[in-house]
Amino acid sequence: MFSPFECMVAWRYLRSRRREGFISVISWFSLLGIALGVATLIIVMAVMNGFRAELFNRILGLNGHLNLYAQQGSIARFDEMADLLRGVPGVKRVTPIAEGQVLVSGPQGSTGALVRGIRLDDLRAQSPLSHKILLGTLDNFKGDHIAIGLRMAERLGLAVGSKLTLTSPRGMQTAFGVVPRLQPFTVAAVYNVGMYEYDNGFVFMPLDAAQGFFGMGQGATTLEMMLDNPHELRDITKQIIADVGKHTSQPMRLLNWQEAHASFVNALQVERNVMFLILTLIIVVAAFNIISGMIMMVKDKGQDIAILRTMGASGGSVMRIFFLSGASIGFIGTMVGVLLGVVFSLNIENIRQVLQTVTGTELFSPEIYFLSHLPARLDWAEVAQVVVMALGLSFLATLYPSWRAARLNPVEALRYE
């Protein structure tokens, strides 16, 4: 497609000489702009993919894909209902949960939290939590022994074996009126899932202890279902609604994870699309730099073009020469940007740690971002999409200047020489 002669001339035009220094500077800035744009786009998309994957894995790992609630009160005979739901195709696990809001009081203060009453076997099945036990063990998770997060333990000055007091807003009715329900508990385990919301605001308690503490009797607040494929909800939802309606007359409500976290999922998607569009403008600006640099090169090389045409070079050959010059800037810039973006994305957490050490500031606060580390996940399909887009814009940017060079009249270029 390109002859050796065309490649040689295109490369000579790209090399800097004193008389053409300004044009060469523009070319270098164009190359740098494309490289930075491609690298920034790859890094930001990798970080956003990492955020999305980490948050989804942890939120969906600690919360059910489908949750069945009673419209009023608690779910009676929840074990029978759980057995029924386990028979629905696509349902992998069903966990009875008894939960409620409490005030947690420790040696160094108090904080609000959500208590989740759960059986030991079901808690062990939640690998995002059971595999993240930092202190203590789940073997003692029974009776008045509970599990709390690392952030809560640090905040309230608690450790394994420490005593804390839980206060429930669901008070006890006495002869003197409603009295808040208070009960002491012992810390059996401290977990660290790496998500601030759970490490600071959740308390896990044995199911029977939670039922007694909240006065639920033998009921459960919700039946939490984990599915084989959390993205295929329609058929499973219809089947569950039909089976539950036949089994009980108690009014029930079914909530899936997309509805429960709708604002969160939509915000992530909108933010991702907007960031992709904004960062793409960096590459577009760099492409315009290629156009301006190539137009100036064509104007500066008018005599050379005329001489090439008089020596027998065709208009197509001249067009290919200048197309090669501009496309080379885009190609080299894109490849440099991909290299920078991939290397940075793969080492972003180490880079963050170094920058924090050097500057002495916290660049990624878990209280704000909900995660204890900066995640990044490269999607090679997205990287390929960025490469194709950058190369496409770069190649398109060279077409008009190359066409102008091919249309140059040799007679007009040499008239006053």
User: Helicity range of the residues?
Assistant: 55-70%
Task: Order the strands across the largest sheet as they lie in space.
Answer: 2-3-8-5-7-6
Number of strands: 10
Low-pLDDT stretches = none
Question: What would the principal axes of the Cα set say about the shape?
Answer: elongated
Please trace the helix and strand order, writing H or E for each element.
Answer: HHEHEEHHEEHEEHEHEHEHHHHHHHH
- How far the N terminus sits from the C terminus, by CA atoms, comes to 33 Å
Strand content: 15-25%
Mean pLDDT: 81
Sheet with the most strands, sense and barrel status: 6 strands, mixed, barrel
Rounded to the nearest angstrom, the radius of gyration is 32 Å
Class from helix and strand fractions = alpha+beta
Description:
- The protein has 417 residues and is an alpha+beta fold.
- It is built from 17 helices and 10 strands.
- A 6-stranded mixed β-barrel has the order 2-3-8-5-7-6.
- Strand 6 and strand 7 form a beta hairpin.
- The longest helix has 42 residues, at 21-62.
- The model has no long low-confidence stretch (mean pLDDT 81).
